[in-house]
Amino acid sequence: MKRVFILLLLLVVCFPTHAQKSSSPADYVQPLAGTATSRWFFFNTACRPFGMVNLSPDTQTGGDWKNGYLYGDKKIRCFSHVHGWQLYGLAVLPFTGAPRGEEGMNVYQSDFDHQHEQASVGYYQVLLQTYGVNSELTSSNRVGMHRYTFPKDSIRGVYFDLCATLMDKIKTASLHKKNERELEGSITMAATSRRPKPFTLYFVVQFSDSIQLLGKWRGKHKISDVTDTISGPGIGAWVEFRPSEKPLLMKVALSYTSVQGALINLQSEAPHWNFDQLVQESYKEWNNYLSRIEVHTSDIKAKERFYTDLWHALLGRRTISDVDGSYCDNTGPLPLTKRTDRDKSGIPYPHYNFDGIWGAHWSISQLWGMVYPEITNGFCNTMLDMYRNGGLIPRGPSGGNYTFVMIGDPAAPFFASAYHYGIRNWNISLAWEGLKKNAYPGGIRDHAGYEFDDQASGGGMNYYIKNGYVPEGIAGGGAHKDGASMTLEYAYQDWSLAQLALSLGKKKEADEFLKRSTNYNKLWDKETGFMRPRNSDGSWIKEFIPIGKNKEFATTGFCESNSAIYTYFVPQSPRGLIQLLGGNEALCTRLDSQLQKGEAHHFLVPHGEHGTASADFENQPAVGMPWLFNFAGKPWLSQKWVYSIRNSVFSEITPDAAYRGDEDQGQFGSVGVMMAMGLFDFQGGAGQNPTWQITAPAFDSLTIHLNPDYYPGKTFRIKTLGQAPGNCYIRSARLNNKRWNHYWLRHEDLVNGGTLVLELGAQPNYSWGN
After folding, report:
1. Which residue of 96, 537, 687, 732 could cross-link 154, Cys pair, CB 3.0 to 4.6 Å?
2. CB neighbours of 456 closer than 8 A, spacing ≥ 6?
3. Which residue numbers delimit the Glycosyl hydrolase family domain (predicted)?
4. Chain segment 522-539, per-residue pLDDT in tens
C-alpha cells in the first residue's frame, strides 16, 4: 500500500494544481540556485516579497553560515517559519507512528531526496520519506499554510519543537490549546552576539480537523498531565488527528507584538482554507513584482539567472510589523508596541528587519530606487522609526534594536539617493537631523561592528574629525575596527551628506561635508601607490602589503578586503582618484591588469579569504571597480569587464555554482540584475543629479515598467542590435531617436520614459562615449 501511495504522490508532484506555463517572469526563478552553501536566511520559497513568514525546510540548524537548507543534505530536520537577519522560530514537522519529539531532531528528522521535491516562488513541496507524508508549504505575508497528505490509516501527527535551536537558541516558549482546532503561544529568541536582546515571536495555529491529542515534553521527558498549556525553557509539544485520506491543513500566523496581533494577521490575510488559492495569490504577487522588468532573449539560462537575482533582491529582508502597522520597539529597557506612519492612501508603512546596508549604494539602493521606489520609501521610514525610538538611524536593525553590523553610516548614501531619485515620502527634516548626528562623535559611525556600549568609540570619529582619518589600533570594542576602510567610507558618506545638504539649501553644512569628503587623500601613499593605513601619530603602518596570502598584513586596516581593492573606493570623486593614480592612462593600465589577475580565479575567493585577491566579487568593496574606466576615457574597458564579471560570477543557476559568496540578503542578486540591465551608478545615486552609466545589456530588449506614483514616464526600454555571445562593446547609441554619444544617462531621462537603442559588436568603438 505504501508503494502505491508514493506513486500517487509522484503523480501529484508531477502535475501540481498550481502549475503554470513557462512564460511569466516568476516561472524562470530557480529557488534552489546556490543552496549548496547557503546561509540561514538564504533559502525561502514559501515566502512573499519581504514576508514576515519565511517557511522553509531546515536540513542544518545551530548557526548562521551553512545553515538552514543545504542542497547536499539528505535529511530534513524541520520546517521553520522565520529565516531572517538574526531571527528564527517555530519549528514543526509532520510525523506518523509513535511520537519521539522529546528525543530531538536528530531522532525524528526525515529522509528526503530531490526527485520528490519541488520549489517555486511562493511554494515548496517535499515527500518526507521516513513518514510517507507529502508536505506542501505556502504563505501570505504573515501567515504560513501547510498541506500534509498522510498515508492511509495512519495517525496524523505534527511536532512543535518550540525550544529547538534553529539559527541560535530559544530562551523560553509557551503553548496553549485554545480549542479543538486552535493553538496559540510564543517563542522568545535568546540574545545573540549580534542581536543583544531577546526577541519574542507570537503565533496562532489553526487546523482543518479537530485535535484528538495534545502531547507535551520538557527536556528529554514526556509530560503526563492533561492540561492544555505548557511554558518555560526546553519545551515542545505534538498534536494528533484521526486517520483520514483528506489532507491535513494547518495555518500558522505570526506577530512580533502579541497573540492578538497574530490572530488579526490571520483573519486579514488567510481567513479561508483554500491552499491552492494562496499559492496562486503568492505566485501572482511575485510575478507582479518581477514583471516590473520585462526582458526578452532566446537565452533561457540568462533569463533564469536574471529573474532569480531579481527574486533575491526582494526576498532576504523581512517585514516585522503587523497588518495594522504595529511593531515591537526593543531599543529601550522594555519592549514597546508602536505603530508605523501611514502613506497617502492610509496604508501603514511596513517596518523592516534587515542585515546591514553596507555596500548597498552599489546594489539594492540603486535597483530599488529605479524599479521599486515604494520599497526604498518603506526602508527610509523604518530607519526613521528607529531614530525616533533609539536615537540613531541604523545600519542594520534586528529584533527591534540595533545590531551595529559592519561599519560606518551607509544610511547616508541610501537617504541621499532616495531624495535625488525623487523618493521623498518620509520626514526629510527628521532624516537630516539623524544623518547629521551620525556623522559626528556619538553617532552610528562611532560604533564599530557589533559594538553595543553606549559610550562606543571603536568607530574612531574623534580621530576622524581631528585628523581627517581613523588610525589603526584605537581603543574601543567591537569588530571590523579597520581605520582605512572607515576613513574611505566616511569620506564617501560625507560627500553624500553634502549633496543632500546642497539640495536642502544648507550651504554651511554642505561646505563642511564637502571638505571632509576629500579625506581619502589622507590615506594616499605616493611611495607605494596605494591607500595605506596610518598609526595614531600619523605615520604609515610598517607591515603593509596591498594584496597577498599573508592575510594579517594584507587586510590590516581594511574591512573584509585589502588595499588593492579599497584604493579604488572613492565613489564621490572618481576624477580625483584618477589624478592620484597618475591620470587616465595610468589608472586604466593598472586597473585592467588587476582585473586580468582577478579573472584568473573567476573574480572570487573562498569566504573568509578576503584580502588575498586582486578583485573579489564575493564581497561588497570591489563591486564598483569595473565602472571606473568610464571616468578615465575608456568606456569600452568598462563594457569589457562588466561583461566578463557577469559571465564569471552572475551566470550560473545550479545549487553548487550560482551564489558562491555571501549573497547578503539580495545585495549580489541586485548587482547581477544591474549588470544584466547594463545600468549602474558608480556614485551610488547620491549625487544631486544622478546618472546611470551604460554597458551592454544581456538581452535583446528590456523594459522597465516605472512606478507611476513616483515617476512620470510609463516605461523605459533598452533595445540591443547585434546581441550575440562576445558582443559586449557598444558601437553606437540612440536615445529617443537621437544620437547619444555619452556613456551615461541622466536619472531624469530614465524616469521620464523613453527608449535607448544600443548597437553592439565584438570590437570596441573607441570614439563612442569617450
Report:
1. 96
2. 404, 446, 447, 448, 476, 477, 478
3. 262-761
4. 999 999 999 999 999 999
Of residues 741, 748, 749, 746, the one with CA closest to residue 765? 741
Measured CA to CA, the distance from residue 757 to residue 373 in angstroms comes to 25
d(CA 285, CA 305): 20
Q: Mind giving me the DSSP string for 41-105? A: TT--SEE-TT-S-EEEEESB-SSSTT-B--TT--EE-EEEEEEETTEEEEEEEEE-SS--GGG-H
Which domains are seen in the chain, by residue range? Answer: 2-290 (2.70.98.10)
Q: How far apart are CA 299 and CA 293, in angstroms?
A: 16
Across the beta sheet with 738-739, what order do the strands follow? 293-296, 701-705, 715-721, 754-761, 729-735, 738-739
Identify the three-state secondary structure at position 202.
strand
Residue type, 701: S
Task: Record the cell numbers describing residue 158, joined without a space.
Answer: 505534527
Element (H, E) at 503: helix 483-503
pLDDT beyond 60 at 16? no
| Cell representation of residue 224 | 503526563
d(CA 516, CA 522): 11
How far, in Å, CA of 500 to CA of 393, rounded?
Answer: 16
C-alpha cell at 712: 512620470
3-class secondary structure per residue, 567-634: CCCCCCCHHHHHHHCCCHHHHHHHHHHHHHHHHHCCCCCCCCCCCCCCCCCCCHHHCCHHHHHHHCCC
Please report, as a single letter, which amino acid is at residue 207.
F
DSSP result, 510-578: HHHHHHHTTGGGGGEETTTTEE--B-TTSPBPSS--SS-S-HHHHHTTSTTS-HHHHTT--TT-HHHHH
Residue 278's region, left for phi above 0, alpha for psi from -120 to 50, else beta, is alpha
Task: Report how far Cα 762 is from the mean position of its chain's Cα atoms.
Answer: 35
**Range 644-682 burial, b when 16+ CB lie within 10 A, else e:** bbbbbbbbbbebeebbbbbbbbbbbbbbbbbbbbbbbbb
**How big is the chain, counted in residues?**
770
Predicted local confidence at residue 661, as pLDDT = 78
pLDDT higher than threshold 90 for residue 7? no
What are the residues whose beta carbons fall under 8 Å from the beta carbon of 588, sequence distance 6 or more? 629, 632, 633, 634, 637
Distance CA 672, CA 646 (A): 7
| DSSP structural state of residue 268 | H
C-alpha closest to that of 750 among 700, 698, 683, 703 = 703
The Cα–Cα gap between 753 and 703 comes to 10
Burial of 134 (0-12, 13-18, 19+ CB in 10 A): buried
Question: Of the candidates 359, 363, 375, which has an alpha carbon nearest to the alpha carbon of residue 292?
Answer: 375
Q: What are 384's three cell numbers?
A: 526613521
CB 17 within 8 A of CB 45: no
Q: What confidence tens digit (pLDDT) does each residue in 144-168 have?
A: 999 999 999 999 999 999 999 999 9
